Amino acid sequence: MAQQGTVVITGYVGSAPTSFGRQGGTAACSFRLACTRRFFHAGEGAWRDHPTVWITVKAFRTLAANVESSVHKGDPVIVTGTLASEEWTKDGTVRSSLVLEAASVGHDLTRGTSVFTRSSSGRRDDGAPENGGSGASADAGRRIGSADIGTGEDGLDEFDAGVM
Predict the structure, then answer these.
(1) What is the mean pLDDT of residues 127-133?
(2) What is the pTM of this model?
(3) Side-chain half-sphere CA neighbours of 64 within 13 A
(4) Does residue 97 register a pLDDT over 90?
(5) What is the mean pLDDT of residues 90-94?
(6) Whole-number Å distance between alpha carbons of 17 and 33
(7) In terms of pLDDT, which residue wins out, 13 or 114?
(8) Domains of the chain
(9) DSSP string, 86-144
């Protein structure tokens, strides 16, 4: 039995999603995700931040295309997927980094609202119809809700003062 651990990470998009790979090949994109844990320091009576952890998130196929058109630098997101390690050699030294291979990416709705537009194909990545139907959904393209959240020059919104 193969073991595959799924992780869930929340944070802020630190770089615009960028496509990579060969022309005409499988769609793929990546972006950097900033995760900063906060804690309340009782002695000082104030919130403090742990160091920011930066993770590269990679998405493939339909998810990659949807991430590129929906996710922007500064957006609060929730990412689920599998942790992987990438290794390469630079200047004779073997280097490695952790990569989160995304299974799903979505806006963190505790920090704002979002608008959802169903894909026109009505099919999941595996080719199965959504909602067990014929592939076309009666509420395709239905607006769920929207708001324009103002962001500061750092790309983060006014909700950043809360616990992350």
Answers:
(1) 49
(2) 0.68
(3) 15
(4) no
(5) 93
(6) 10
(7) 13
(8) 6-112 (2.40.50.140)
(9) EEEEETTEEEEEEEEEEEEEEE-TTS--------TT-B-TTSPBGGGSSS--TTTT---
